[in-house]
Amino acid sequence: MPPSLSVPAHIVLDMETVKVETASGAPVSFIRDGRTWHVGAVPVRWFERVPWWETTTRAPKDGMLRIDVAVWQVQARIGHNPRSPLVTFELVLGQDRASWSVRSMESVAA
Question: In terms of domain of life, where is this protein from (predicted)?
Answer without folding.
Answer: Bacteria
